[in-house]
User: Fold this.
Amino acid sequence: MGNKFYVPKTLGYQVANCIRQFALTEVEFPRIVGFSLGDSNLLRSGKFDLCQVSSNLSNIEIKVEGYEEFPIVIDVPFNDVLTIGHLRKAGIGAIGDDEDILLSVPDSSSKTIKLIINSLKSNTSAADNRSLLESKLPPEFLDRCNIIHSRGSNFDFGINVVPGISADIVTVDAKTPDSRHVLEQSLKSIIHLFSEILEETLN
Assistant:
């Protein structure tokens, strides 16, 4: 169905193109870009598939609120198995079932995984992610972390314009959580830009 709104006649395509342009260039997404289990030797112990864990974490669609600056580091306590549910309990919104397993360590002792989350616009390699983090986080902490590749946005939305007699109808169909985030952030960016233009004009 999508979200439908009306705009002045003949402006439908301009509005749609504006939203599309902001979506492609302005929107950033929170992504897990690295993790630490405290003891760097555990990451290299061979007790779990490091590549699979890195893939699991890099592909999660997450949402964190209340943070104005990135990167951030969030502690997530767990025992032998880390799940999506543990992320949610730590304040990280994540797509998936609570029982979905992200990491399994073969002993029952209590552990804490430190997740590094950054705000990114596009696919970023592990090397580039490390470069982005080096000026923000202590090098001794980064040396204990596994920095991973992070994917870009997974947004998929359609914008349709129907010219009308008195107004144009613009319909935006956001099909995924990333798409809804893109739409929300794009509209906020547009509002902010035009608010600044209005303020400068009135001054």
Notes: Residues 177-202 form the longest helix (26 residues). The first strand starts at residue 3 and ends at 8. The mean pLDDT is 86. The helical segments are 12-25, 40-43, 50-58, 84-89, 126-134, 139-142, 177-202.
